[in-house]
Design goal:
With 357 residues, the protein is mainly beta. The protein is 0% helix and 49% strand. It contains no helices and 25 strands. It has strands at residues 22-25, 28-35, 40-48, 54-55, 60-63, 67-72, 78-79, 84-91, 97-105, 114-123, 155-162, 173-180, 184-189, 195-197, 203-208, 214-221, 227-234, 249-251, 256-259, 265-268, 278-294, 297-313, 317-319, 328-338, 350-355. The chain has a five-stranded mixed β-sheet with strand order 19-25-24-21-22, with no helix packed on it. Strand 13 and strand 14 form a beta hairpin. It is elongated. The chain starts with 21 loop residues before the first strand and ends with a strand.
Length: 357
């Protein structure tokens, strides 16, 4: 069985902590009626809704020993803003009647803890132990199977993913299941065809990295090979590989003459992108000519473009104050960059001449 780390905290009612920056879902779990010595698993998701990182405390249980921690990615975990972790709670009892407990979750953003209430009921077979009626003089215990001698079909009671949507290509998801009357169970990744072994045929969780939109199929079989299936879709954000459109230099271009003042600007057209806003990287270069003396006259014979500065901005204009001086020739180009880091082709070099006002 799973972990049973216990705490001496009352398990009364759900207690969200308004000062905590954690979002816990759900705040109460009802396992319902479960057969004695049967097992069921439910999951709790903890999300950091704060703008700063949060460190979680050890996850603890208080109350009935019928509840256990079957999976825990939260204890002592540091959650960045928007990150989440998962706790898998198990319920298994050999005692009839209702059982109660609480899952205790604390963190460094508050001095108070939050409690998730857990409830489950162990039930016996509804049929009496013996029946001495005239129709059953032997006193044999009747069966709940309406067709004696046949095997009940397997039943999938639960199959869920946490999280099931909003994953990035490198994110993991926990697939949890609960099955009745099965002797064998496995998962199929319908995208890759991979068959995934499950820890047992009744209840459990496995962690997967889908990488892209994927359908997982849970397959359960009984001893006579009767089979049931249930599919579950996991949605992964598709990576953006498409660069923005190339921006176009507007001014100065074509050898324009520019006064070297604080009001001199570079201007270009806005680039469009399939996935939101873009920023721009502008490269400014100056022509530095080499010279040779010919009867005391300076004759320009060659030169090179020297990088003045490469700058990044969110707008479509850049002020040249402090960057240009007379009498030099300059050229510039601009590239667009989207949120995924894709870079457009650079604009054509645009040249201008800088003179004193």
């Amino acid at each position: 069985r799973g972990s049973s780390r216990r705490a001496s905290v009352p398990s009364a009612s759900p207690s969200p902590n308004p000062s905590s920056k954690l979002q816990i879902s759900p705040m109460a779990i009802a396992f319902g009626n479960q057969p004695l010595n049967g097992s069921a698993i439910r999951s709790v998701t903890v999300t950091n809704t704060n703008s700063e990182t949060i460190t979680l405390d050890e996850s603890l249980l208080s109350g009935s020993m019928a509840f256990t921690l079957e999976g825990d990615t939260c204890t002592n975990t540091v959650l960045a803003p928007g990150d989440r972790c998962t706790l898998d709670l198990g319920f298994r009892t050999d005692t009839p009647g209702q059982q109660e407990a609480a899952l205790i979750i604390g963190d460094n953003s508050s001095s108070h803890v939050q409690r998730v209430v857990l409830q489950g009921t162990g039930v016996t077979d509804l049929a009496p132990d013996t029946d001495n009626s005239p129709s059953n003089p032997s006193g044999n215990r009747p069966t709940n199977n309406p067709n004696p001698g046949t095997t009940r079909s397997p039943e999938i009671k639960g199959f869920n993913a946490s999280p099931a949507t909003g994953l990035q290509p490198t994110d993991t998801t926990r697939l949890c299941y609960e099955i009745d009357q099965a002797t064998q169970a496995y998962l199929v990744n319908e995208t890759t065809g991979e068959r995934i072994t499950l820890p047992n045929a009744s209840a459990g969780c496995v962690t997967q990295t889908p990488g892209r939109n994927t359908t997982y199929t849970l397959v359960a079989m009984n001893q006579t090979s009767q089979e049931v299936r249930r599919g579950l879709d996991v949605v992964v954000a598709q990576p953006d590989w498409e660069p923005p459109m190339t921006p176009r230099a507007i001014a100065p271009t074509g050898g324009d003459t520019v006064y070297c003042t604080n009001s001199a600007n570079l201007t270009w057209s806005a680039a469009t992108d399939n996935n939101g806003p873009v920023s721009y990287t502008v490269t400014l270069q100056r022509w530095e000519a080499a010279s040779a003396n010919d009867e005391e006259e300076a004759i320009l014979v060659s030169g090179t473009w020297v990088n003045v500065q490469t700058m990044t901005t969110a707008g479509t204009q850049l002020n040249l104050s402090g960057l240009i001086m007379p009498p030099f020739t300059y050229r510039w180009q601009v590239k667009a960059i989207d949120a995924a880091g894709n870079v457009s082709q650079p604009s054509a070099w645009a040249q201008f001449w800088c003179i004193a006002p």
